[in-house]
Amino acid sequence: MARVYNWQIGREMSYWYPEHRPQKQFAAVFDTNKCIACQTCTLACKTTWTSGRGQEYMLWNNVESKPYGSYPLAWDLNLLKKLDGGKWNGSRYEGQTIFESAEAGERVLGWRPESQDYAYPNVGEDDCAGQVDAGAYMNSPHMAWFFYLARICNHCTHPACLASCPRGSIYKRPEDGIVLVDQSRCRGYQECVKACPYKKVFFNPMTGTSEKCIACYPKIEQGIQPQCFVNCIGKIRMAGFINKPESARPDNPIDYLVHIKKVALPLYPQFGLEPNVYYIPPIHVPTSFTRQMFGPGVDAAVKTYRNAKNDPDLAALLCLFGSSEMVMPQFRRQGDMVSGIDAQGNTVVRVPMNEPVHVRPAYDRLYQIQRTNCP
Ligand code: SF4
Ligand code: SF4
Fold it and tell me: What are the C-alpha distances in Å from 12 to residues 19, 89, 110, 160, 296?
């Protein structure tokens, strides 16, 4: 075992390979407050990459209703129970990661789902937490809650799938940190399926190999955001590249949200993988729940997000989500306009922070017709 640094848990930790960060790291921010669980992202991915034989139950992107939704079944609960973690001291995690609590002879603490666990991708959909007592909903509509969690591979900095593969079939691209399975090397041992705590590697019984989200790398190479991002109806997603905290750039959207404003947080940082999809936590959910899911920064993140209307740069950046299909490694606010800038320095989109409202008369004199209130 080597020693690597994981800034998300504020300390060094044990990992199978020495630390080897890519030149650039693909990353994303998802705003859970905007997701409507329409599953357009799920279908955009499915029709692009996993419509073949053996891929019937394979969802590289899925959206689940928390707290009861999970795909595959109980993916997070199973590991949380085994890990016996949760000991944070401020921003330092003092429990064990899945690498540090691996059993003798194993590289990672994991579990392999049964095929039945993949059979119910919509389990728990829109189910509330807690009991709604008779009449309670009349007085206190916020006693019961749920929220939608969109999930893809996190293209982790310290991937468990990569660490666990006895064939060395999984690799992290040096140019963008995207994690891929070399299909020609894979022999289908499924150690990666067992090891990935997010259960984002899938076994294809027809090909006998493991397959996973590829971050639509042919698009990323062209400076275009992945399919699940550009098709997102709720405009909850922003793709880009993240720097280490000490080299965070305030004009980089991902750095700004993750390192500077700390409003976007990793999913289960205590697992120890330094995952690179970051979530703006749901602001209506008790933080006693979301703290376990997104770490100790949740309370501050919710406060910052609630205050966004008084924070022009943050408000501007939130307007840029879903505004262009291009990757925007840079943003700039000028007055109440915000620009997204591509890797070549070209402005690819300009968005107003306040949309003008046009009120049209019901009767259009020019065309002599009555209009409905459709836009
Ligand atoms: S397309 Fe966007 S809004 Fe719809 S479910 Fe997916 S992440 Fe949520
Ligand atoms: S989320 Fe899972 S499959 Fe993706 S890089 Fe991390 S460990 Fe590997």
Answer: 10, 15, 21, 16, 18
- CA nearest neighbour of 338 among 251, 236, 264: 251
Domains of the chain, with CATH numbers?
2-280 (3.30.70.20)
- Give 10-residue mean pLDDT values along the chain (375 residues): 97 96 98 98 98 96 96 96 88 96 94 96 88 60 83 98 98 98 97 98 97 98 98 98 98 98 98 98 95 97 98 98 98 97 97 88 89 66
Q: Do the beta carbons of residue 83 and residue 271 sit within 8 Å?
A: yes
Res 178: pLDDT: 98
Give per-residue pLDDT as tens, 229-257. 999 999 999 999 999 999 999 999 999 99
What is the Cα–Cα distance from 316 to 81, expressed in whole angstroms? 40
Is any atom of ligand 2 closer than 6 Å to the C-beta of 212? yes
Structure tokens of 340? 């997204």
Three-state SS string over 23-75 comes to CCEEEEEEEHHHCCCCCHHHHHHHHHHCCCCCCCCCCCCEEEEECCCCCCCCH
Kindly list the protein residues whose Cβ atom lies closer than 6 A to any atom of ligand 1.
35-41, 63, 148, 150, 232-234, 236
Strands 62-66 and 147-151, by their bridges, are: antiparallel
pLDDT for residue 1: 87
Q: For residues 3 and 12, is the Cβ–Cβ distance under 8 A?
A: yes
Candidate of 152, 176, 211, 212 to mutate for ligand 2, largest count of ligand atoms within 8 Å of Cβ: 212
